[in-house]
Amino acid sequence: METQKIHYTAGGNPSHAGVFILKNGQDIEYIVIDHVEWKEKEKINGADKSVFVAFFKPNPYTKLPMVLNKVNKERLLKAAKLGSFDLLTLKDFPVRLTFEPTQVGDGLRISKLPAKIPATPVKQKPAITEENFDKAVEFLKTKTMEELRGFYEVPEEMEKRLTSRYNG
């Protein structure tokens, strides 16, 4: 059984994303920054600081925002091809997150490498509903349930109704 590696900072109740969000220390190859905000009094490790904070779109890695230190701000501006005063205009920008040792400990960094855009997700099939039920019945007069499933998601309850309708 493979042991999962978890960074020691994962304990407690963190308020911001850190290196601990990297599963087994591996890069997050694709995560999208929804937007960046300037926070006058952001509580970081018990102290109020004025910082830029990146907020991510919903993702499987973290719900926490990320404080943008000097290195991460510079990398983000360079990757997004933005000027120094344009950080707050950044929207919907994909990045890669990585681990780098720093002078004060392990750091979560915006990678110098570009985000690796995931393969195009399979398009979700529409479900059989009351609105298209009669069309599905017509389809099943000449085709099979498996062929119908090629075009539609067939919820279990709808399958029972369809089966009783075209068999009965």
Describe this structure in words.
The chain folds into two domains: 8-110, no CATH class; 133-167. 23% of the residues lie in helices and 29% in strands. The chain has helices at residues 70-80, 133-140, 145-151, 156-167, and strands at 28-44, 47-56, 66-68, 91-102, 105-110. Helix 2 (133-140) packs across helix 4 (156-167). The radius of gyration is 24 Å and the shape is elongated. It starts with 27 loop residues before the first strand and ends with a helix. The mean pLDDT is 86.
Summarize the amount of helix as a percent range. Answer: 10-25%
Gyration radius from CA atoms, angstroms: 24 Å
The strand count comes to 5
Report the end-to-end length measured between terminal Cα atoms.
Answer: 52 Å
Query: What best-fitting shape do the alpha-carbon axes yield?
Result: elongated
Q: Which whole number gives the mean pLDDT? A: 86
Descriptive terms for the model:
single chain, alpha+beta
Which helices and strands, and how do they pair?
Elements: E1 28-44, E2 47-56, E3 66-68, H1 70-80, E4 91-102, E5 105-110, H2 133-140, H3 145-151, H4 156-167
Antiparallel strand pairs: 1-2, 1-4, 2-3, 4-5
Summarize the structure.
The protein has 168 residues and is an alpha+beta fold. Helices cover 23% and strands 29% of the residues. The protein has helices at residues 70-80, 133-140, 145-151, 156-167; strands spanning 28-44, 47-56, 66-68, 91-102, 105-110.
